[in-house]
Amino acid sequence: MKLTPLADRVVLKMMEAEETTKGGIILTASAKEKPSVAEVISVGPGGKVDGKDVVMTVKPGDKVITEKYSGSTVKVEDEEYVIVRLNDIIAIVE
Question: What is the pLDDT of residue 31?
Fold first, then answer.
């Protein structure tokens, strides 16, 4: 099954959170922050959204930083994805 987002939506796959700190301390699952870095899997076409033209500025394969706790989580074939609006993406990681 393939996810194809509509309008200004982007399908992301969240990257794993670090399990140890720089000092070597192992973090429990409850101590980890929700990751905000993700890989772009699929991008909607953009176009008119709420009466405004939206040009998609990300492409599949980009690494991005999103607003924490944004988007909708979906599970497809045992993989978990997050679908967000373009304006929930705050930076591209290079």
Answer: 47
